[in-house]
Amino acid sequence: MLSKRSSHKRPRFFLHPGYVLTVVILCFAAYCVVVPGTLPPSKRSSKGILDQKSKSTFKLKSIYRHGVGVNHRWHQRLEMTPELISKAGTLYQETAVQMQGDEGSEPLWTNNAEYATSNPFDVEFALGKVPLTLKRMKQRDPDYMEAYISGETYMSEAEAHAMWIDDDVVAPNITDRDTVISLALMSSNAYVRIPQTGDWRNVTQPWNETEPEDFGWDGDGIRGHVFYNEVENIVVLSIKGTSAQGLPGSGEDETTGNDKVNDNLLFSCCCARVSYLWTTVCDCYVKSYTCDESCLEKELMRKDRFYSTMIDIYKGVLEEYPDAAIWVTGHSLGGALASLLGRTFGLPAVAFESPGELLASKRLHLPFPPGLPSYMEGIWHFGHNADPIFMGTCNGASSSCSLAGYAMETACHTGRVCIYDVVNDKGWRVNMFNHRIHKVIDEVLLGYDQAAKCVEPEPCVDCYNWDFIPSRDRKSSSRLVTKTRSSAKPTATTRTTTTTSSSTCVGRNWLGFCTKYDL
Ligand SMILES: *[C@@H]1O[C@H](CO)[C@@H](O)[C@H](O)[C@H]1NC(C)=O
Ligand SMILES: *[C@@H]1O[C@H](CO)[C@@H](O)[C@H](O)[C@H]1NC(C)=O
Ligand SMILES: *[C@@H]1O[C@H](CO)[C@@H](O)[C@H](O)[C@H]1NC(C)=O
Fold this sequence. Notes:
By secondary structure, the protein is an alpha/beta fold. The chain contains 16 helices and 19 strands.
């Protein structure tokens, strides 16, 4: 822990003028000598956010934004230049002044004096690292994984098992409180506004359409903030789904349609058909508590939905940093997407207050290692038990979530859960306001002396009262079910049907792999 220095309100990771002056470059004729100055003030902890000695810090390098829905062809990147960082800092300070005294508005960053900053885009984060043996797929480049998930890859059982390797990787030290707080701040950084600028570059050429207004920003879409540690060659990709901030209780106006559609698609039992009054987000509802599973799967994988969009962003990051280790993080929907991305490509992922994403992981047929689902995984879900979205109690016709048009019905997480018991420790009541990232940072992550312990989640089933039928229209659902992978379960038979087969999957094991076909 850092000692508070009341005489000095600057945060410890804000570059103190003292640091700047301690490196003096002396030039005599043609020779320049760099004279290292004194060390930072002695009170600074070496494991703090600013790791001055090794310079082994993560800095924001670029931001991706990707449209969804009709704008899904738009994918752009913005490089963080010194001018932009300085402009963004000015905008941040202006907004902060405007928001002062604005009752009920969420702080833009954190109120904690230790972690406050005058420019969130200039912060250098130091993250603790630990070696981790991660069970992941041997082959996991985007092309391969896309084929795998769409079911275009098939393999024998032995091959399927051989796909999984124990990889020694470096992962964030999630037992370290400072590291967890830093990752949460990186997740919250994805919410902070940046100035309107024309410097966005097209990652993919968006054909001949005119640029939509503010996609991936105030409007629909996904943003990815790329932090890079050049000393250790590690990238942290922080994912933001716009809806998280617009959830009920965030104090902001309603979000746009696509976010709600995607949230309801990912975290509801059946296209958010909560009652006959609801406009469903997809057409998979068959009849009372009966839903078409292959229809749901097809909907989730659509190119204009969040999952596919996020993979596009990941591809962009891979192109930028081909040899780097990549970690992912995010809050709420961003956290759930981080977890889905981590599972797809075998990346360490740290999510904050994310809704249950086990159901979506299965519907997307993401790879689960053979054995226990959370065995040797690098996925961690931090959250507290007074957040209805994290706990999966954000449902029921009269809940505040439903009233705002959200059907977040899932509760089950994959990987490990790290839960702060604020209900008992602090007497909190379950409330949507407790979902906000800054409330979580200021009062939970900073409010405890230690990071929550991460454990395997209790056995958990979502949507148990629903009946998911393989397909109500078998001919039209061939895309998802005709191709085969072997099951990772030793007892399952391996099928090798061809892509043109019209067979339909009528049974899946818990890994989501098809085990029974109706030819
Ligand atoms: C991880 O963090 C904990 C808590 O700060 C610390 O005790 C431990 O030594 C760290 N592990 C490594 C490998 O640095
Ligand atoms: C991105 O693509 C759009 C549509 O083709 C085009 O209008 C715009 O100028 C491009 N932006 C840049 C920076 O090239
Ligand atoms: C491109 O232009 C054509 C012809 O004007 C139009 O029909 C089409 O909708 C436009 N957009 C795309 C994505 O092709």
